[in-house]
Amino acid sequence: MPKPGAAHASMTSTPPPHDDPPPRLAGGGAALSDIVQATFWSAPDGLVVIDAQGDLVICNDRFLALWAFPPDMLARRDTRELRLHTATRIRNGEAFLRSIPEMLARRHPGEFDEVVLKDGRVFQRLVSPLDLPDRPGLMIVRWRDVTDERRAQEQVGVLSAQMTLAMAHAEIVFWEADLVEGRFVSDTGPWMSSLGYEVPASGPTLRDWEMLVHPDDRASRATAWQAHVSGLAPTFEAEFRIRHRDGRWLWVLTRGVATARDAQGQATRVVGLRVDITRRRQAELQLEAQAFTDGLTGSLNRRRFLELASVEMSRARRHGHDATLLMIDLDHFKALNDTHGHAGGDLVLRAFVTTAAQVTRASDLFGRVGGEEFALLLPQTSQAGGLQLAHRLQALVRASPVMLGQQPVHYSASIGVAAWSPAGAGEATIELLMLAADNALYKAKHLGRSRVELAAAGTTR
Asked: 73 lies in which domain range?
């Protein structure tokens, strides 16, 4: 963002030094320009604006960090040299160089390609025309590090292959049900025996089976079953939990199809198969936990927090509910790490999450959004309620030292609070709320830490 009093220059062909104010984008009012500038320079992706010839116009710091351009190379601003440097970092550098004319000719936004670097990272390239009235032909290229996403996809692929192999040897039970008599007529006895139950001499009834279904799954299973029995769905398929006699809940996949129907179209006989998918569902839950939670603390990771918080803020706007956000930073955390080592720092982070859980509700969203920074979104909570909780949390942190060996380690937290209310004119977005709460957090740390500060009025607008 420009420093106070800085000239409002439009984009130039020379990127600003890191200590100088960035140039302003052309067009829009002052407030819009400030937002665009802040978005450009703080974006998590590498952003570069190029002209119709592919020459660099401006780029953000993330772009420079991704490609590690030497300072002297940037100073020369030789487009060919910059491209060659980029190509040397990519496994198929020649293909990258050949793709540039095609990229420059593209006039619609979207994903262009992905490149694999020699160090194993994967970057996604997205392009979009940026036709400004006074600068036609510009294009913005977004470089996004998708390494973690691609590795997660590979893990899912490996898991899928493993599960396919496992299912090839899994116990599959074929069943046949007589709906007129309300009984299974084949192959269900061994299955119920495997669940630890004695099988009636006359065979289990459909009711016997239904009573074993988990209460939370009964409605969805019954809906799928009735849809097929009545002829509304061509087949029956459902995944649900079944109670083992020892108390465990096992996941099963059941598929079936009617082989006979009466004059009214109601199924009278259904055949199908049933498979134990407990291991698959456990693996899916584990992958989901890895994708959505912070591995150290078990709280939401930054990406998942922003996704859920965005949905919650949309709900607040739609229903006219208040929402308050707390941005929390553990004070002097680097010094704590230096004194007690990273293992000690990790214990403090986990202890803080446990402490925070004592003052939060099930409906609140809590996530680790930085190294020692956390965010807490309080739906249907006013500014006054958010401030009250922030002070409670801060007092609880002070009163809850962490035991490192035999030594109690005291720590504190600084908290910035920002609130959105339907009575105000502000836009209900998590990005604006986080920006306001971050500014309040910065103020709390600047004034001596271990404080709660409220965002200035109007900063969430």
From this structure: 30-145
Select from 145, 176, 203 the last residue of a domain. Answer: 145
- As for how many domains the chain has, the answer is 3
Strand arrangement, sheet containing 110-116: 56-59, 46-50, 139-145, 122-129, 110-116
Q: Are 290 and 152 in contact (CB under 8 A)?
A: yes
How far apart (Å, rounded) are the C-alpha atoms in residues 267 and 182? Answer: 12
Whole-angstrom distance, CA of residue 398 vs CA of residue 6: 43
Residue 80 tokens, joined: 């060919």
The pLDDT tens digits of the residues spanning 328-337 come to 999 999 988 8
| Strands, sheet with 267-276, edge to edge from the N-terminal-most edge strand | 183-186, 172-178, 267-276, 249-261, 236-243
Residue ranges in 358-458 assigned as alpha helix (H): 383-398, 430-446
Residue 320 shares a structural domain with residue 227: no
Cα distances (Å, whole numbers) of residue 310 to 31, 146, 229, 305, 434: 22, 21, 41, 8, 11
Over residues 120-156, the pLDDT tens digits come to: 999 999 999 987 788 888 999 999 999 998 888 888 8
- CATH number of the domain within which 172 lies: 3.30.450.20
Q: Determine, yes or no, domain membership for 5.
A: no
